[in-house]
Records
---
Amino acid sequence: MSPIVSSLIHSLLGLVDLGIFLALVFGAVAIYTDWLIHSKIHRYIHNIKWITLEIRVPSANFKSAKAMEQVFTSLHGIYSFGIKPEEVYKEGKVEDWISCEIVGSADGVKFYITTPSKFRNLIESSFFSQYPDVEIEEVEDYMKHLPEVIPNGDYDLFGQDYILARDGFYPIRTYQEFEGIKEEVSTDSLAPLMEAMSNLKGEERILMQLLIKAAGDSWKKKGEAEIAKIAGQPKKEEKKGDVLTSSGQFTKNLILAPIIYPTWGGSPEKKAEQPVKFLNPYEQNTAKAIAVKIGKVGFETIFRVIYIDKKEGFNKANLSALSGALRVFNTQDLNSFRPGNGTLTSSSKVGRTFKKQRLLERKRLLFRAYKERLVKLQIHQYLHLQDSVLNAEELATLYHPPASFVQAPRLTQLEAKKGTPPMNLPVSE
């Protein structure tokens, strides 16, 4: 082998070794940076000070879910309008979220909101503006009264996160479809769920959780694109051009000015008009429903439901009642809820091997996710969290103080409102 060829081979091998070395260095730096950012995010979340507020509304509640929709619209004020990259790198900052919870047990059905303490004033003012007679009290987190880990030797659970079956801009059935002109012909969207939660006995519990995080405009733009697609409108094309293109157009206009009128950005000839598409009734209803949904503020939502009971009394009939209560929000033509397979506590959804151990691990992780109010984080390979976009109207459908005509026997309500003493009340010295 000639010295030149030998030298060339050694040089190439040196370049290969250098490339591998650089690739390893860059890979290590990327892994370390990713680990550092996630560590800061987890530290930021861990340092959030949470409080639990119990929401109590008088039994004579004549407010519809429309009032609660206004509350959720106000709660969209937690949105940061975009977290800066330096805030993520330095502080691990993430978008804040709030947990709206309904808890059913033998003691009754109660409404809670678990929130970062800094949003307490926002929540109270939002409720008082729509429900003047509401009482909001800070209480101990009810999850502290349950064992640290479930399932265990005494308790078992079944649960899952519900996600939308279609894209987030398709709406579910909302409270407006349940309301009539008169109270006696109205129904409440939460009536089936209240009834299911009111029939619990002993140690049975149904826990429903809505983790809401204010969403930006990206989901709205997808909805607008879908409406344009249904209407047969062409996709918008971005105008492209640079300095050379503009100068060339100027020169062309200068030369042809005595002959034709100058034009910019293309041929002066009129473009062929798009034929008008006539929408059938289904397309009209779909486009209108999407337009109504994206016209209201949206939230990235995790919708979680868990049923807990002692092992010896675990009643699967309650699971059927719970599932049926949630089906009232589904529609055949627009959107519906389905179980998120990454959270469903079923042996058929945890893999083909070690099913018993995997199912136990998934149940415990789902309980932990509820207890710690975990949002979209992959905390383990057996539990993958997914969120859906729900607007203020849809959230109000799922979470609102029931109207007075809902006769759930164990619904916890105020029998009397606390009041201030009269101004002329005599007092002793």
---
Amino acid sequence: MENLKRLREIVLEKSFMYNEDSPFRLSSGLLSPFYFDCKKTTLDPEGSCLIGELLFEFVKQWPIMGAGGLTLGADPLGGALMYAAWKHKRKINQFIVRKQLKSHGAIKWVEGNIQRGDSVVILDDVITTGNSVIEAIDHAREDGLNVFGVLVLVDRQEFDGMNKIKKLVPNGSVTALINRTEIMDIYNEITKSTPKNLHHLECCRACNG
């Protein structure tokens, strides 16, 4: 699929860093030689368009009314999917799962045009330990939603995150558009063919913070 191939290229260009000698500290506190800053892809116009179309391909046959996840990582994915679905004449409402329970008005975890009993898909940009997705699943279920599946942009293939999630969604609709192995394969090919150019790219990323 050309869309998926192009999305992998964007993830590598904008969101991926690799350093065996100086591991990155992740939000979980764990160390890893791999780092994905997926918001640089999900908030990119081309990246967002591709993500929306690819997510819709997965869910177009699913009996879901909404898509979303824990703010902030899931938010751009939910918007991209909602827009792509609408273009294809399918209504899938985006929702946002709060990190803290709303304390006034209608006290709830989930915000959006979604109702108790609706089937939904949980989204996230990257899976490490799986804790953000698990939290979103728990809160969605607390608000009466039926979690039909889970879709993520990148599976880091570390710390058993995807397997933890699969245990909570028994129908098996848990997948990632891209995994770390696929990105590393492209990275290694570029390293072999154009090491100087790749080194320049990494230096530019470091300078741009």
---
Amino acid sequence: MLRKSALLEIIAGKNRGLLATPSDKQAILSAIAQLEDYNPTPRPVEAGELLNGDWRLLYTSSRELLNLDSFPLVKLGQIYQSIRVKESKVYNIGELYGLPYLEGIVSVAARFEATSERRVQIKFERSIFGLSRLIGYESPVKFINEIESGKKFAAVDIGLDTREQQGWLDITYLDKDLRIGRGNKESVFVLTKQ
């Protein structure tokens, strides 16, 4: 699809949004809106087989995520999101790199609940932040399996109050390998299926 190719081309080289200029951001938002008009999955929340799985972030306007790149001596690496539809769970993992032995991760585990055919309410339950070596982090899949098994990590590993730590996300485009979402803080997210 031409619109999808145009969006992927315009976000290429923008380092998930870190390198996007104000004019880039406008062009990207325009390309996203054009693609959303042709969403092949009109009821994305009900399309569990498409939603389920592991996703990698291609672009976002989320200041919370992009600000992870502002830690001293550390840079933001890949950001992953894993959706487990049957369990109504979502896991976000941001990889951090920089000086040797200071590689780390920032992770949040949450539950989600459908509130419409395209919106989910997200309640954040657990946050984990620490050095990859101490946590034993090797890959998002292995890490998520360890979280699901109830493992406690040698890191900042805290439970969150779901009444205070929550938000919503509209899934505005979904196909077999691309997902676009718009969040409650006016952020957009473009992800590709792994």
---
Amino acid sequence: MSHKIAIITGGSRGIGKAIALRLAKSGVDSIVTYKSSQAEAGEVVKQIEALGARAVAVQLDVANRDSYLNFAAVAQAALEKLGATKFDFLVNNAGIGLSQPFAETTEAQFDEMTNIHFKSVFFLSQTLLPLINDGGHIVNISTGTTRFVLPGYSIYASLKTAVEGLTKYMAKELGPRRIRVNVVAPGATETDFRDGFIRNNPQFKKMMEVNIALGRVGQADDIAGVVNSLLSDDCYWVNGQRIEASGGQVL
């Protein structure tokens, strides 16, 4: 996958960071977006460069409609820094967590989560279509909770279910350009998502591990490896699919 360029939203930490670093090992340059932590994003750029790839960090707030609708111009400028005019891979990864009972969820929470997890995926992908090379690949990040149910995830999982449906339509409609679109659905993964909820709650972590066939929760590198493989030519014939990366959770 050498000489390819990826745009990874939410690439300054967690799964997004792990994806950027794994792709760098495969020779892929990256544009990583961050919401607020420029320092963290800059550190990711340094780590990518240490692996022999190139990277640019740009600010993007996927909760802000104007931010992602105007992102094409930002991406174009970042591509120029990498000596290119187009890119090859888009990983829609940016997101936030919310664990809130259905009965207590507010409209404001609903709107914020919708903007971040569905609307941004739809319109950011749409906005970047002129810049993605024919034969490129879009990967949308979903969640295992679209298949198994955890109380408190009604909004999050419902919006990710919408993303999974959108993925199929994108794959169908972008087929003439040979742009593949797939979705990767992580199970319980130990990152700083929701302020490191799994990492900082040993009892919850153990409860998750009991229901995972491989006996542990996932790590960000586990998900990054799946995305890296999916973007390779070896997986060219995989299109419009949901790939769950959960170690066999709740089988």
